[in-house]
Specification:
This protein has 172 residues and is mainly beta. It is built from no helices and twelve strands. The strands form two sheets. The chain has an eight-stranded antiparallel sheet with strand order 1-12-3-8-9-10-5-6, with no helix packed on it. The radius of gyration is 16 Å and the shape is globular. The two termini are 15 Å apart.
């Protein structure tokens, strides 16, 4: 998906560009079920955490009862993890001007007969030559057929000024 040239079945619902340091970003998606089948969240962000990377968390319907899995690579190593809520990585404060990116697909967000599944491609490039960069493929599962009403994005640190969060609805 490229900005300004969206496929005919994807629509921008809401976008935030932070003008202050913010701990979480919440999208209230109540009532969108009649319009969209899936959701896609596109993130370009970094945090104030004093590290090269920060962990990216997605919470659906404000529930902690999810299970996430991550396959990550740094260019020199590969690792597989099973976590609660964590689905990927973005840049931390020590990457200076580098922002991390993530594309979060929330499948069947408004179905009343299917559990909720999230898939995430995320990462950052340290850009300084000496540190590692990370790319991660993550998934998250909420064992609930309830229609989604909210999506919360969080990290260990708070999101930095200039971080961008754009939520799209997909009709088919």
């Amino acid at each position: 998906m490229s900005v300004g040239n969206l496929p005919s079945n994807e629509y921008l619902i809401q976008s935030y560009v932070l003008d202050s340091v913010t701990a979480t970003v919440t999208f209230d998606i109540t009532g969108l079920g009649s319009q969209f089948r899936h959701l896609q969240l596109v993130i370009a962000a970094k945090t104030n955490r004093a590290d090269r990377a920060d962990l990216l968390y997605i919470k659906l319907n404000n529930s902690d009862a999810t299970k996430a899995h991550i396959l990550q690579g740094t260019g020199t190593s590969v690792q597989s993890l099973s976590e609660d809520l964590r689905v990927g990585y973005i840049a931390g404060a020590t990457t200076t001007s580098v922002f991390g990116a993530a594309v979060v697909d929330i499948l069947d967000a408004f179905s009343s007969t299917k559990n909720k599944t999230v898939r995430v491609l995320s990462g950052y490039n340290n850009g300084t030559g000496g540190g590692e960069s990370i790319v991660a493929l993550g998934s998250n599962f909420l064992n609930s057929t309830s229609t989604l009403t909210s999506v919360v994005v969080a990290a260990i640190g708070s999101f930095a000024i200039g971080s961008r969060f754009s939520l799209y609805g997909v009709t088919a």
